[in-house]
Design a protein that fits this description.
The chain is 49% helix and 18% strand. The longest helix has 38 residues. Helix 1 packs across helix 13 and helix 16 packs antiparallel against helix 22. Strands 1, 2, 3, 4, 7, 8, 9, 10, 11, 12, 13 and 14 form a twelve-stranded mixed sheet that branches. A six-stranded mixed barrel has the order 17-18-23-20-22-21. The radius of gyration is 34 Å and the shape is elongated. With 810 residues, the protein is of the alpha+beta class.
Length: 810
Amino acid sequence: MFKNYFKIALRNLWKHKGFSAINVVGLSMGLACFLMITMYVLDEVSYDRFNQKSERIFRINSDIRFGGTDMNMAVTADPMGETLKRDYPQVEQYTRLYASSGSKMVKNGEKFVTENRVAHVDSTFFDVFTFPAISGDTKTALNEPNTVVITKTTAERYFGSSKEALGKMIETDDNDKTLYKVSAVIEDMPKNSHFSYDFLFSMDNVSYDFGNYLSHNFHTYIVLRDGVDYREFNKKFDEVIEKYIFPQAKQFLNMESIDDFEKSGNKIGYSLIPLTDIHLKSGRTPELGANGNIQYVYIFSVAAIFILLIACINFMNLSTARSAGRAKEVGIRKVMGTDKKSLIWQFLTESIVMALIALIISVFFVWLLIPWFNGIAGKELSMSVFLSPLYIILIVSLPFIVGAMAGIYPAFYLSSFKPIAVLKGKVNAGSKKDYFRSSLVIFQFTTSIILIIGTIVIYKQLDHIQNSKIGFDKEQVMVVENMGLSSSARKSVKNEISSLSGIKSASFAGYLPVSNSSRNDNTFSLASVMDESNSFNMQNWNVDYDYLKTMDMELLEGRFFSDEFGSDSTAIVINEATAKLAGFTEPLGKKLYTNGKNNEILTYTVIGVVKNFNFESLRQNVGALSFRLGNNSWKAAYRLNPGKISSTIAAIEAKYKAAAPNMPLNYEFLDESFENMYKQERRVGEVALTFSVLAVLIACLGLFGLATYIAEQRKKEIGIRKVLGASIPNIVAMMSIDFVKLVLIAFAIAAPFAWWAMDGWLQDFAFRINLSWWIFALTGLTAIAIAVATLSFQAIKAALANPVKSLRSE
């Protein structure tokens, strides 16, 4: 029986080639979108799950509010992991990762190269995370100082092979030209990990004041034993704060109890986040890589389903639209004894066959488009995902699910015809009162309009970020890494470059106004005796005399540092946010206090106020920040004259090469670093734009097919109207007006929902656009224009047809 159904299905598809082609192309596009988005979503939710203990690994987060400043950090104090393992049997193991240096100069042959994927880790690192060893023993690899574990690709790059690398020495350009022994080689870290490193150096080589519970610089992970609820374990941090952290805090804050600290509006808290949640649900400072966003996963998941539904709706609309053409077939079959159940199975089989053909074509589309999709999404997806058990199940089941979704209504609709009525010609599939079909068109365009509005808002917000007055000029600023040069050599090179005609200004710039730059959080107070009520947290940047000029920041009051004033060693320049936080109405001459070495109280005098500038993401409000005179020369910033960019860069390269011929010159432009902060949003915008366009195309394809069949059904009506004197514009308007009404209804439904969704998305940004009315008006007009353009071809074709041909049978 099913073999017969299959044969009849193929014959019908071949007989109605135009209908079949429109349906297959629409379904193929919908399925291709669905498959690509599914690949994207599955990749996003797979992060860190390759670790054998992934369900029991947790990172310790820190949440501190001090003096009106909030710090939500992905790092914690260096003793925290050891303390938890020692005091609480629920903790099986811990490990720390220290990546504050960001990069190392590593000698490869005769020259040093800059390696950015480096970190120092504890010897217990491989007890927590699963990174298989190719050679060496990871359990003991980092037990001693001056040891390093490298990845397979790194071993091949430096030594030719993984086996050759084991036991070899790697020289780094640290202060003392440290030699590290390669103690193990591991497989390359998976792409779906929230961190990725090529070099894992021993924690014993970190120069740090260990044992300080108040300094937070280590990413710390713990493994809980089986059966331990991490939410319950979070309560243990109150004991840790009381026993270890508060006693150290008392040493420099004049307070009696933790209650006094909290009554002043301050707080300190710690919590665990599951390892598998970090990529999508953590946006703290500092993260070890570019995280995703669970909201985008939800948005794209819903978009995938809706795009597939749009394609299925096309099938329903076209199938029911051409029902008059199959009405006699149904009537004759029923007269010949075919029951309703058999007819339903026949029509469902046709749908499934069409879905199967569309699926095969869609897989080809995915194969063709996956490199392009990876480029805009920042992924490394491959067709190998189709071999995974989950995807095999999905691929096998899709034709049946889609075929049933798309064909269930047409099957019941067509099989319900009364044989006597249809044989008398009393079926009118082109009826204007087909409310179900109209509701499907409304659904299609509602979804498309929501996607269009969302895409416009994302792009407008990104444009707003790029062109906002952020308080400094990020254009034409070249930032150079000064690693490998002595302090005196750095200063000499900087002075030589400053004299070049293409240079406006130059400054040592260890601290830059972009995320993931160096930061130095200090505790300051309004009185020499610090307590919980007069103290606050503030970033403090050590800069040179030319920093303000080079970054083109605006000075509102007072002055910046100058070598004409010897007292500037005890001076401080603050931003507006600091003045407001400290309650300074007239900041100049005011004193700020902080702790120096051996808890010595240092006093600084405010000499200037800088206009607020965004030194972190525009998702955050501008926080408290100050400048002090110092020499953080690990980076230099050069503001270039616009007309001489290429020649000036070449001259800068020549100066550095002359000073350090074996060292690489690493530089970037400040505007590029600024743009990188919003790379995730830009990629989301490009992906959203892509699928918005495809959703509209699929909807228009269905609308085109629907207009074709309705024009066919109404050709006699059109002929009569032409004979009676109707003009071509009248006929085009008559055929288009019903669809335009449906698009307007779709817009009325979509606009409020889109406003609600995008207003929620914009709440993540402290600096955001307003949802202007014109965005919605433009989208509505665009949707109408697209619908009219789609309909016009068939409407004009029908209006131009010779009425004699359509009426000659009457």
